[in-house]
Amino acid sequence: MNSAAAAFLESFGTTNISVEAAALIRKLTEDRQTLIPLMNKDPGDMNAVYKYAEQYLQNLSQLLESLNCCGSVRLQKMLALSWRGAQGLIDEAHRIPSTVQQEIIYEIIMIIYVLGLAKYATAVNLLHSNGAPISKEALKEAAKCFLDAAGIFQYLVEDTVRKIV
């Protein structure tokens, strides 16, 4: 288990919390352990990345909602999620979250970013024909994926990041 994926278990633990909360913590850990290696594969299965990122996002949102409802949370260790391996795109040195909620919001932003990248990469893969003509179906599907990616990135900037900043 890599340390980033283990962060949920190390921070929240699974003792002295409800059975449902412990199950969610375990699921978040499993989701992240599955997602990170999929993203680092070359070439990766972008449909699988999208599927697991979407599932992970739902679970993160549930955790954030739970934390917002209960107020304060006693952690065994500060939650610290890292995206250093995310294709060198994130400068971790300038990111200093101060609360558990902020750390989870950061993770949500990164997962939405991953969803957009997965759609974009799927479109690019559909258009990569190794010199063969691109079929109409592939072109239509690629256009749909590019449109989905654009919508995800627009949502990320206009709805998600603006609410935080």
Describe the structure in your own words.
- By secondary structure, this protein is mainly α.
- It contains five helices and no strands.
- It has helices at 3-12, 19-40, 46-70, 100-127, 136-164.
- The protein is elongated.
- Mean pLDDT is 78; it is low at 85-90.
The rough form would be described as: elongated
Structural class: mainly alpha
Strand content: under 5%
Counting DSSP E segments of at least 2 residues, the number of strands comes to: 0
**SSE string, helix = H, strand = E?**
HHHHH
CATH arch. level architecture: Alpha Horseshoe
Number of helices: 5
Q: What is Rg?
A: 18 Å
Fraction of helical residues? 55-70%
How would you summarize what this structure contains?
With 165 residues, this protein is mainly α. The protein has helices at residues 3-12, 19-40, 46-70, 100-127, 136-164. The protein is elongated.
How does the SSE layout of this entry go?
Elements: H1 3-12, H2 19-40, H3 46-70, H4 100-127, H5 136-164
Helix pairs in contact: 1-2, 2-3, 3-4, 4-5
Name a few traits of the molecule.
165 residues; mainly alpha; Serine Threonine Protein Phosphatase 5, Tetratricopeptide repeat; 5 helices; 69% helix
